[in-house]
Amino acid sequence: MGLRQLGESARYVLTLADRVVEVLVEPEMQAFNVRIAGRDYEVETTRGRGRRRRDEGDQFVAGKWLLRAPLTGVVRDVRAAAGDTVAPGDVLLVVEAMKMLNELRARVPGRVAAVRVAEGERVEIGNPLVEVREEGA
Predict the structure, then answer these.
(1) Tens digit of pLDDT per residue, the chain (137 long)?
(2) Nearest to 119 by CA among 79, 77, 80
(3) Cα(1)–Cα(5) distance, rounded to whole angstroms?
(4) What local confidence, expressed as pLDDT, does residue 80 receive?
(5) Residues 23 and 4 sit within 8 Å (Cβ to Cβ)
(6) Number of Cβ within a 10 Å radius of residue 39
């Protein structure tokens, strides 16, 4: 038995005792979408601590994406300002929780409409942090 990644892709080959299976792994904020032999599975990481918590991190309303705090901590760095253009994956904020720095990233392309927190501010799970107006919205 074994699992081998194919290059730098999201594709893997899982070797079992009686067969070989292709596996596709797509990381999400606090989970992985996994496709094994044509069947889809969602695998939550221990950081996710449940679907309710992950769902609070994303909210789309009227063409705007609202990043909500996925964890409790202190804002250590604000890297986005109103009017900035962002792409998926750009770091918007850094939040410290349990002595670990967590980069919170944009999930949509667009322009920052509002930053609702400041450096040094304590945030709780679900607090609104950054609002991004999606491109073309």
Answers:
(1) 688 888 878 888 888 888 888 888 877 666 677 888 778 777 766 554 444 444 445 666 777 899 999 889 999 999 999 999 999 999 999 999 988 999 999 988 999 999 999 999 999 988 999 999 987 65
(2) 77
(3) 14
(4) 96
(5) no
(6) 7
CB-based contacts of 137: which residues, under 8 Å, 6+ apart? 62, 63, 64, 110
One-letter identity of residue 120: G
What CATH architecture applies to the domain 57-134?
Beta Barrel (2.40)
Q: How far apart are CA 33 and CA 4, in angstroms?
A: 17
Per-domain boundaries in the chain = 2-44, 57-134
Residues whose CB is less than 8 angstroms from the CB of residue 44 and which lie 6 or more positions away in sequence, other chains included = 30, 31, 50, 51, 54
At residue 120, the pLDDT reads: 97
Report residue 10 as tokens: 């999201």
Distance CA 11, CA 23 (A): 6
